[in-house]
Design goal:
Elements lengths: L2 H30 L8 E5 L5 H9 L4 E4 L4 H11 L4 H5 L1 E4 L8 H7 L2 E5 L2 H17 L6 E7 L15 H9 L4 E8 L7 H18 L5 E3 L6 H6 L4 E4 L1 H4 L8
Helix pairs in contact: 2-3, 5-6
């Protein structure tokens, strides 16, 4: 075994331990909330980390990943799927969780299962065009899932639509070919308690589902607040640092 092989094995072991700890933490939160474990998806956020790490995680049984930068994500996913890791790579699902630029919507629509960060009509239109093109060319075989990002505190600098803007955005998504409305996404502001923000997210989500019964997904909770998110109905937690470790000094 070479030194490089040893380094790769050490990284796999590190990821395995971190993932197991995060999974146990999530399972405990789900149990405490009296929910079923398959009600909450663990999305491993691999932005800034190389394709090799994604491959290692796939080898550990992980299938759901979150990315936030394009074209980094597109290049990485292509590398993962062309690597010699068999059918497991084709089963992997990649969601876009970061801010979307209109000019990159076309390529995002080629690889993303869902986009969690839709907060403007302009982005809905761009993703609809991209999704329809991807469906026409065979780059994708199902509609692109859309989650509307909600601003919990109304600060426009954080991204997200305020609750009053959700009805119009939802109708725009529903009326667009190639898109499927899945639910809502939130990021808890730093100021204030996670409990407060997740309670607010749950209330907004409840009202939203009353109007859109099929859009039941709630993407909420990260490394620091997943317990609060699960307690308030999150169906997807986005965990990066707790699993991946410190961000690399040099990104791809």
């Amino acid at each position: 075994m070479t030194a490089a092989d040893g380094d790769r094995d050490a990284r796999r072991d590190d990821l395995a331990q971190r993932y197991a700890a995060a999974r146990a933490r999530l399972d405990a939160a789900i149990d405490a909330a009296g929910r079923r474990r398959d009600d909450v998806e663990l999305l491993v956020v691999t932005k800034f980390f190389p394709a090799d790490d994604v491959g290692r995680l796939i080898g550990l049984g992980v299938r759901s990943f979150g990315e936030s930068r394009e074209p980094e994500a597109g290049r990485k996913i292509a590398e993962v799927r062309s690597a010699a890791i068999g059918a497991a790579a084709s089963d992997a699902r990649f969601d876009m969780i970061g801010s979307v630029q209109s000019k990159k919507a076309k390529t995002i629509a080629e690889w993303a299962r869902s986009v969690h960060s839709v907060d403007r009509g302009k982005i809905v239109d761009a993703l609809a065009r991209g999704a329809q093109t991807a469906l026409d060319t065979g780059a994708r075989t199902a509609d692109l899932g859309i989650l509307l990002q909600v601003s919990l505190d109304g600060d426009p600098h954080r991204g997200g639509a305020v609750e009053d803007e959700l009805p119009a955005l939802a109708e725009q998504v529903i009326g667009a070919d190639g898109l499927s409305l899945k639910g809502l996404m939130v990021i808890a502001p730093v100021e204030g308690s996670a409990e407060r923000w997740m309670h607010r997210a749950a209330e907004i989500h409840r009202r939203f589902v009353e109007e859109h019964p099929d859009a039941r997904q709630l993407s909420a909770g990260m490394s620091g607040d997943l317990e609060e998110a699960v307690a308030h109905g999150s169906t997807c937690v986005r965990v990066g640092t707790a699993i991946m470790g410190p961000r690399p000094l040099v990104s791809q």
